[in-house]
Design goal:
511 residues; alpha/beta; eight-stranded parallel sheet; four-stranded antiparallel sheet; globular
Length: 511
């Protein structure tokens, strides 16, 4: 994929300062679009949007196709007539970190109440929206029906994993599935209504972004969660034993982030089965992704060429082995079916010539992270003077410390490298890094929102290999100031050398 040279900001939806205790798709999201437009930014990068499970990681979703109901805006539901104003009185305000427990205990029941109201009143009170709901259910039935039943059964059994359900449901015996579907028809419809609400609100946000010439860059994790509708519905596609337990699981070997590697725990694909089926499941997954996003980042791209397979019984990732995957065959099949794809390869970590060959064959941009570039000479490819056009560059990512936090923990050699590169930074290197990214030849320069605000380690989004305490950062209310947008806009005026037709707020009136 070829990008026009542009810049943007990484900020997950949950990190917005929205009403209700967690960022959502409502007014704060639309205000952020306005900020990006004023700042002459052309890309908004988000993390995966699926429903999260234990640990609240957007990379451990319970569906590769569904949206996260927690991100639905209650104020918009109120405006639709799905729920009364007074029912929202006790939700928390716009500031402070996400309390996932509070969201589960207070917001989710209100979402269910709103869905029930819509099911009861929609045909009479919102006939046009009800018609769109019916069309949505028909259009998305291939994943929606199974996901809605899975979500309701998961709520009922409260086991945290479908592998602990009664055998007849765990193994999806046809009679048991039919009986469960009939017995839970109302709850299944509620889940479908929430997925419809998510889709309506997301589509409205994307339309607003498009009017301002802003593309949404989304994220697709290579692996899916074991506790997901995907594995429950399609166990034949994964390395599971006769009892539907994982045989081997995903992760990465020891690296920069962890001396024992990362044991992710996701089940591995049976690539031979997927290939024999013409990669149908992957075709539908990527089809869904390019319907939801303008650009798609493939997380852990390295795993499409070879993946680290860990015995499921092991507690660390140390004893894994590299197993080949049919990445090039997969991507050529995807492109043959879906056409040219707007994909970015997250090619960080241990990258071999074989991985580069797959990415280059598909002409996908790779990634560089400036924080990595000051470690030693071998890491200098992450510095701007080594960049090339087909590249997406970052000061840091959601898995890194913030750039200010990184600086404050950096050793003497790294600090010396920063000051040799930029001159004196006087303890504040972040905007030096941002300017260097923007001035580079890379096609796309992305800055995490925390770096725009020069925040320290307290604003870190995720620490890999640490199971708890992640994903809860939210931007302070009122932080997207006119001064900040003007600062970014002035930088864009200098660095946007290609006269990108997406550059102005009047651009892209039609997608």
């Amino acid at each position: 994929m070829e990008f026009r040279r542009s810049s943007g900001v990484l900020l997950h939806i949950s990190s917005l300062p929205s009403f209700g205790g967690i960022g959502d798709l409502g007014p704060a999201a639309h205000a952020f679009v306005e900020f990006l437009a004023a700042a002459r930014q052309h890309v908004w990068q988000v993390l995966p949007l699926g429903p999260t499970g234990y640990g609240n990681s957007p990379y451990a979703c319970s569906s590769a196709f569904a949206g996260n109901p927690s991100l639905i805006c209650m104020e918009v539901l109120r405006d639709w007539g799905w729920i009364a104003e007074d029912r929202l009185a006790h939700l928390p305000a716009h500031s402070g970190p996400v309390s996932f427990h509070h969201v589960e205990e207070h917001k989710l029941p209100l979402l269910t109440e709103a869905a029930c109201n819509f099911l009861d009143r929609g045909p009479q009170q919102q006939p046009e929206q009800w018609q769109r709901f019916q069309e949505f259910c028909q259009r998305e039935a291939a994943w929606l029906d199974d996901y809605a039943l899975y979500a309701e059964l998961r709520r009922q059994f409260r086991t945290g994993a479908w592998t602990e359900w009664p055998d007849s449901l765990r193994k999806r015996e046809s009679e048991a599935i039919a009986n469960a579907t009939r017995a839970n028809a109302r709850a299944i419809d509620q889940e479908k209504a929430l997925q419809f609400a998510f889709a309506e609100q997301w589509d409205a946000l994307r339309a607003a972004a498009a009017r301002h010439g802003i593309r949404i860059l989304g994220d697709v994790a290579i692996f899916v969660n074991m506790d997901s509708a995907d594995v429950w519905v399609h166990p034949e596609l994964f390395e599971l034993d006769a009892e539907l337990k994982p045989v081997r699981i995903a992760g990465v070997p020891p690296d920069y982030f962890s001396p024992t590697g990362q044991r992710w725990g996701n089940p591995l694909y049976r690539w031979d089965v997927l290939a024999a089926q013409g990669f149908g499941w992957w075709i539908e997954r990527i089809r869904r992704a390019i319907e939801v996003y303008d650009i798609v980042r493939l997380d852990h791209f390295r795993g499409f060429e070879a993946y680290w397979a860990i015995p499921a019984a092991d507690e660390t990732a140390v004893n894994g082995e590299w197993i080949k995957a049919p990445g090039l065959e997969l991507f050529r099949t995807l492109e043959a079916v879906l056409g040219p794809l707007p994909l970015i390869a997250e090619d960080l970590g241990l990258i071999t010539p074989e991985v580069d060959a797959v990415r280059e064959a598909m002409q996908m941009p790779g990634m560089k992270v400036m924080q990595f570039g000051f470690g030693d000479a071998a890491a200098h490819d992450h510095l701007p003077h080594r960049y090339y056009p087909r590249l997406v560059t970052y000061t840091g990512t959601h898995d890194n410390d913030t750039s200010q936090g990184w600086w404050e923990k950096a050793g003497k050699a790294e600090r010396h490298g920063v000051e040799a590169y930029f001159g004196g930074v006087h303890g504040r290197p972040v905007w030096h890094m941002i300017r260097a990214l923007a001035a580079s030849v890379a096609q796309l320069a992305i800055v995490p929102a925390q770096d725009l605000l020069e925040l320290g380690s307290e604003a870190r989004m995720n620490t890999p290999s640490v199971a708890t305490g992640n994903w809860s950062w939210r931007a302070p209310e009122g932080c997207w100031t006119p001064e900040l947008s003007k600062r970014l806009a002035r930088l864009a005026e200098v660095t946007d050398r290609d006269n990108d037709p997406l550059a102005g707020p009047e651009a892209q009136q039609a997608r």
